[in-house]
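Box S2. Input/output pair 1.
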Amino acid sequence: MKVGKKRLLAFLIGSVLLLTACGAKKTDNIYHDTIAALPKSDYTATVNIGLDKPVLLVTDGVYDDGDGNEAAIYCDVYYPVGKKVQKIGTIESMGTAYPIAFGKDGIYAALDRGVQKYAVDSADGKLVMTQNIYVSYDTEGTASYFNEESGTAKSVSVSEYDSAEDVYAHCVTVDFKQKDN
């Protein structure tokens, strides 16, 4: 039986696409039971931040950010700890101008005068704030810039602050979807 080159090529491309789709679906299945147990009014999103598995974010309040996203200013964070998916923390931004966002190395929240970056410590199963950079003004209105690490604030330059703001500005806004009923 002779198979034409075009048919063979179409078969191979179709097979690759099918296998790719199956592989992508498997990743989200780790959260199937967790999502199924949530209230019908919740919204979920999975984000990839450079870990072995995606991170599940859950909120009960979203808004249209004007760019086609169902954004949120707070969410609970879930990740597999051992063999069980657990809530490992909560992230909150300070208003709709600062939606929860993510980049290749973390999840971000923002304040009117600062940025917070979170990572998942997959070994300990904890959500960790790895950066809390902000500006503070004295009574004269003079700005001072700080980065808080491990509960200790150290002074940083305005360019370090601006860099953190720029990183947040280039992150992807989390687009939550209503849980399938």
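Box S3. Input/output pair 2.
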Amino acid sequence: MLSGCSATGVIYTNDPYEKVSNAEYLTSRHRTLPARKFLLEVMDEINSSEEKDEKLVGYSYRALGFLLTSSTYQGYRNDRDDYNTPYDGDKNKGMEFYEKASEIFVKNYLYYDAGNTAWMKHLVYIKLDKNSEACAQLDETIAYNKLGLKNDIKNGTGVAYTDGNSSFDDQLAKQKTKLNCK
């Protein structure tokens, strides 16, 4: 069996969930062109499938939101004319994909994923210098994660603790203070 790389350091896979995961990883490393390739492949698979895997659609939409709101991707996009698929656009289009992902996650009781999506949206609002919207997304993050805990549904991704915070609550409290949230 032969295997190859789809992007340096990323082994090609046929698994659409792995493709989405690879795209998120690549986007986080500012390697948005191969990330875009993975996501276009997944969306083609989703659109050609008789039965829609809603969880996969939600994850794909969230990854598209992440890609489209990344500064690196916007820089490439602005320099090229060939970015004209329904999955390309500006940061507003990325926020639309985040919204679609949230709707799917809530509909399917994937509250941790909805919370993670709200967290990602809050980061975009910070970049856009829209602190009140960022604070509202932090409140959504808290609400969805409480729903996830309350229902003990552990099949989502949750929000990773970052910057040396000891807990999720600690991370959110620091972020709310930093943004002067009420």
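Caption for Box S3: The CA atoms of residues 109 and 151 lie 9 Å apart. The beta strands are 5-7, 10-11.
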